[in-house]
Specification:
homodimer; alpha/beta; four-stranded antiparallel sheet
């Protein structure tokens, strides 16, 4: 096949350089092309084009027109053409300003996308009226994946949902200092396409962090930087499919969100009961599943630590061919108990390990790490490549600095003090206002689980619904269970002030008394 | 099933608060637990634990021990225990320092992961010797997806590979200013889990940008923020599968990388020839494919603009039921031609539109946007949710500020001036050193395509291999073709200085003369 003929090689070059005016004229702004203007009618033409763009919404209210000097240069017209056109639009009330602040559109078009179409079921519903009307639908027994968006988008006076650390403590000044240092030290090529596995600096920092804090020896080359635990599960879902695993057992109670993510990528996620020693390995064996996702250091939501015997039993199951996915989501936060080493440290060739910065700094950073057995490494790397070619570079380099400088350790110590005070406030409030409830898993983490007497008189879905109507947002425990279990609530304490936590629990106490 | 019994409720709380020392003692650092120490032997015990950690690599050379004050407080021991243990390790030559700079590990263990195992085939090979030995293997006729990592990781004196803008011009100061403003203005809850679709501020900024520069009217709710065009293709791959489309035709010549990404997610990617007017719609119809990926504004790699008749023919095909995926990868960079409006503007309900910041600012930011027809919106949003729960928030907010303040427009004007000079330098060098070559697509973009006479005497793979051996990195045109096509090279000019570009082209000229 012949190559395209519309080209110019060295031979034609002189013609191209002699820049046909009608070709060079034109700005990306509104795709204006002076070749369209009638002879002598430039101002009319430009005014009309601008009017159309304001009218059809391409220039919405509040948007700024280019400086007349700039637009005139781009179009290759005299500046007077542009200022005249701007003046006409101003006289028509379509734009305003023209001073040093620039010319701004003031009259937008009537909205043509009806509001009903834009706030589809998949969009969060942030308005107060929507919250009230959607509250009954929000808490349903078997919610789909959009429920977390809906919950987040629903306003409430007091937010006791679990999952985030104290975000007000985010080290903004340290982050900005690190960002400045990163930008100062960056080579130009660092801004190009990067290493799919993550920047070497962050992989090294994570390896050091895991060795120091989680007892895991890892070469930086084994660390894959990912966009949080959600992506770690997605990549594993893809990679496991390639080695013939399409079923991963999960803990029950166990995280609804994690289960939804696995279920999106895999054929089955059979539930395995959790008791006071953690996951029941006999029941895991009975499912016949080739792999299991679990939270051994601080089971979600029960807070149980995987007991010593159970740990050995699980490692035996893994050594015999089972694959463990260890979700180490909040192990760094602990208060009244010794640290629990990661399973990955004991059996690296049978354990995939996922951790993230979400509970240490902020979920909004979307940064985590994944370590897998050698035989899965290529498949997981491939999955990351075809997902997004690797995490953004700047936040990785900033984070690496915070981790290697000791700043993150300092932040963790600060968080522990603050979280412990908040946890204690919540437990004291529960003792006062919910004397019949039982608290689980409070020795570590960012949340606690509350079970309520079976004779409560309502489901936990109904309780959570009533609480939301009273301005208190929680998660019903039954969201995180599929097997029979008492009713309860999962309550986060890390992001609320002690008075808020106390007031929120008092509201729950009042509702439980009314139900009983 | 009964809830776990290892818990404490209000009743047991007093016991927990009375803090059993052996439970509270312990630091995450090396998971030390003083309960393990023999009575009276704390210093011995701590020294042994530290020695083990240095020996087995959990504390690698260069890592920093916690301040003695901090570790003593965490362990609940006197500070003398820690300083004594540190002193012993220092006497043994395992650590050094102890001053204000802290105590640093100096003796690491022998590496236990053999280098051969860590630099697997999937890892970039950055050493010079690896480059020399892998150079012949690097340029192969049908490369797999790892080839871009290998190419990037292979050092070369002069890099003429396409795909990046002038990264040295990245507006570091403006970025840092915007980041400071973002951190100053951020609410704590902005740092939690965010909107899967992207932050409202960036979706709004992108909608304005597209209206101003690409003629596209879009409501911010239609904009999905994604991790670059690679992720846009991945999400489309997932979403199209859900509506029964598992085949997407691609341009030929056409981007190898984009094809690899689609091929990972879909069953088939049949090639459709491109001629001087762009993609041959008759040939597209003949494939029977229900969808097509194309680059209408500046075809990659030929640089052809989709002609007016061809554009109408394509839109007719789409109106009859075909789906267009418009990869608008570098449309903002143009020099001697009028702007080309996006196809999306003409037929939004049949065109998926993908754009990104990679060619405007930097690929390392991994930020792009995807607009799809309404019927695909839920499926694409779902795919994004299960991929990673949404892009990181801070870079989105920084970018939104740069876009809305006019900073990005200024940067684009600066880039155009610089890129045009570089393009002109490359074309002049080609005229001098490669008089037999034909230049294509130089009126816009960041690269140009060179075709070479059929009587060249070697393949473009051989030419690229020889060039790399001579220190010049390029991409052979045949990587981007599956149908018969003349040999050639794809050369990026945006990231190199004019003298580098000239020298690189001179090397290519010498090699072509030697081959002929």
């Amino acid at each position: 096949m012949a190559p395209p003929s519309r080209h110019y090689g060295p031979v034609n070059r002189s013609k191209a350089v002699a820049s046909d005016r009608s070709k060079e004229a034109g700005a990306d702004f509104l795709q204006l092309d002076t070749a369209d203007a009638p002879p002598g009618g430039l101002t009319d033409w430009l005014s009309r084009r601008l009017r159309e763009a304001v009218g059809d919404g391409r220039l919405p209210g509040g948007s700024r027109l280019p400086a007349s000097r700039v637009l005139a240069a781009e179009l290759g017209v005299s500046r007077g053409v542009v200022t005249d056109a701007y003046r006409r639009l101003a006289e028509e009330g379509r734009v305003a300003g023209q001073g040093r602040g620039g010319t701004v559109v003031v009259a937008g078009p009537a909205p043509t996308v009806p509001p009903a179409a834009t706030s589809s079921a998949s969009a969060p519903a942030p308005s107060a009226s929507a919250a009230t009307s959607s509250a009954p639908a929000l808490y349903r027994p078997d919610p789909d994946a959009e429920v977390f968006d809906l919950l987040r988008g629903t306003p409430a006076r007091i937010d006791l949902t679990p999952g985030v650390p104290d975000l007000a403590a985010f080290p903004r000044a340290a982050w900005l200092r690190a960002e400045r240092a990163v930008l100062d030290g960056l080579a130009a090529h660092d801004l190009g396409y990067g290493d799919v596995r993550g920047t070497p600096a962050l992989r090294r920092a994570v390896a050091h962090w895991l060795a120091r804090n989680r007892g895991i020896r890892a070469d930086p080359d084994e660390v894959l930087i990912v966009a949080g635990t959600a992506q770690a599960l997605a990549l594993l879902g893809r990679a496991l499919g390639r080695v013939g695993i399409d079923e991963v057992a999960v803990e029950d109670p166990g995280s609804l969100g994690a289960r939804q993510h696995l279920a999106h990528w895999l054929a089955a996620t059979p539930p395995v009961p959790v008791d006071a020693e953690g996951i029941r390995v006999d029941a895991l064996r009975a499912t016949g599943a080739p792999a299991v996702l679990l939270t051994p250091a601080h089971q979600f939501p029960t807070g149980v630590v995987l007991g010593g015997d159970r740990r050995r039993e699980l490692l035996r199951w893994a050594a015999e061919g089972g694959l463990v996915i260890e979700d180490d989501y909040d192990a760094e936060h602990r208060y009244d108990r010794p640290p629990v080493p990661a399973l990955r440290a004991a059996l690296p060739e049978r354990v995939c390990y996922a951790g993230s910065i979400s509970k240490l700094l902020a979920p909004a950073l979307r940064t985590g790490w994944l370590l897998v057995p050698a035989r899965l490494r290529d498949a997981v790397l491939d999955a990351k490549r075809f997902a997004d070619l690797g995490n953004p570079v700047l936040p990785q380099l900033v984070l690496a600095r915070l981790m290697e400088s000791g700043e993150l350790d300092r932040h963790l110590r600060l968080l522990r003090r603050r979280h412990r005070r908040r946890r204690d406030a919540m437990i004291a409030a529960i003792r006062t206002h919910l004397p019949g409830a039982t608290v689980h898993g409070a020795a570590a983490g960012l949340h606690l689980m509350l079970t309520l007497p079976e004779e409560l008189g309502c489901t936990d879905i109904e309780l959570a619904t009533a609480a939301l109507a009273a301005g208190v947002k929680t998660q019903p425990l039954s969201w995180h269970t599929r097997l029979p279990y008492p009713p309860g609530l999962v309550l986060g304490y890390a992001a609320g002030s002690p008075p808020e936590l106390t007031e929120g629990v008092a509201v729950l106490g009042r509702l439980v008394r009314q139900a009983g």
